[in-house]
Amino acid sequence: MKKIITIIFYFVVTAAGLFAHPGGHYSKSDVSTLHQWETQKNNEKIVGNYMMSNKEFILIEGAEGKIWRMNINELSANDKNFINAEISNINTKNGINLPLITDYNSISKWDYQYIFKLAILALIAFGFYGLSILAYKNNFRKQWQFAFSILALCFSVLFFASCKKTTPSPAPVVPTGNGIPKTSTGFLDSAFTPYKPSISTTWDTTYFYVNSGGIPNHNMMIGITSWQQQVPIPQAYSGTNHWSIPLQPVYATTPLSTRYNFMKGAVAIAVNGIPIFNALNNRGEDSYAIGELDNWGGHCGKADDYHYHAAPLHLSGTSGLMPIAFALDGFAVYGAKEPDGTNMQSLDTCHGHIYNNGVYHYHGTNTYPYVVGSMRGKVTIDPTTPAPENQILPQAFAHGVRPPLTPLRNAVITDFTSPAANAYNLTYQLGNRQGHVNYNWDNTGRYHFTFIDTAGVTTTANY
Predict the structure, then answer these.
(1) Is 101 contained in some domain?
(2) What is the pLDDT, as a whole number, of residue 178?
(3) Is 0.85 topped by the overall pTM?
C-alpha cells in the first residue's frame, strides 16, 4: 500500500509541473513593448500584456512569465478601452466573435470551478489507470479492489458536481440596423430649455436645430497652461449656420473611432449651445492632458471660437438628470448618472451603452475619450476632409476676425473677467510676470484689442 501511495504522490507532483508556464513570453528587455495598467483602487501600476478576461477579472502576463490577476471594476476607463481594442483585434485576426468585457452578463463563479473540477477528474482517471497497472503486476487483489472503490466514488461525485454548473447568460445583442425610435422634439427641447434665452431651438421633420452665440453662461479660459493666444468672441451659430441634431438616429455598421477621425469640427453640441470637439486636437494630442483646456473643459480655436474638448460635466448642476449634450449622430450624452439617477453603468468602446429605456446614449466622464469614443450612429462625412481631419456634416462653422496667433510657451491664464457688456479682460502669467489682453466689440462687429505684454509694452489692434 505504501508503494501505491508513493506513486500517487509522484503522479500529482509531475502533473502540476506539466501545467506550469515557466519562462513566459516576454523578457525584461521587452518592457518597452508592454502595456502599463493602472488600477483605480490604489493607483498601482502593473506592466504587462493582456492574456484573457471575463466579466470579473483579467489576466496580465509581464516580463519573465509573471502573471497578475486584476479585477475589471478596479481598472481605469483607458485600460478597459485597451482591453476591448485587444479583443476586437483578436476577433478580426481569427474570424471569431469573442464578447467585449462590457458584453458579459453575470457569470457564476461555478463556471470557472467547472474547469478546475474537470482537471481534477482527469488526474483521478490517470491515477486510477496507474493503480490498475500496479495492482495487476503485483497481484495486489485486495488493495486494488479498495482503490477501485474509492476512485469510483470520487469519480462519480466530481462528475455530477461538475455537470451542475450555471449556464452563463448570453451576451447582449447589439443592434446594427435601424429600429431606433425617433427622438421626441419635446424631449430635446426640454434638455436645452434651462439655457434659454441665450440659445434658441427650432426643428423640422428631420433635424432639431440649435442657435447660439458661442459664449457660455460660465466663466472661461482660467486654468489653461498651454495657450494658443486665442480668446473667446461671439459666433453666429444661427440662421442657416445652426447646429443640427438628427431626429432619427441610425446605428453605424462600423462605428468610426474618434482616435482616427473627426479631428476637425464638432462631434457634439452641449445643451448650452457650445460645440464639443474631439478629445484629440488636430495634432492627435489629448487637449486636456497637455493643458490646453480651462477649468470647464474648453478653449478657443483659430477663429477665437470657444468650444469644449472634454465633457462639460458641470452642466449637470443645471440640467440634473437630463442630457448635457447631443452627439451629431443624434444620440444623447448624459453625465455621471443614468437617466433614472442610478450610477453610470459600464461603457462600451463608443463610450456609451443601451440602458433601461432601450435607447443608446453616451456618457461624459473625466477620462479619455471624455465624450465620444466612436460614433455609434451613422454620420455623413464632408468629402473634402480626409481622415483624421475629417468632419461631420451638417456642421455649424466659426468665423474669426483676426489672424490666428502662435502658442505662448509656459503662459498660464490666471484670470478672465467681463468689466462691461461686450468686453473681456484676460490675465496671464509668464514666470513671475503678468500680461494682459483686453478687448471689446460693438454691435457692428468691430473689435478693439489692447495687448500688454510681460515687459509692460502696450500695443493695440482693430479688426
Answers:
(1) no
(2) 63
(3) no
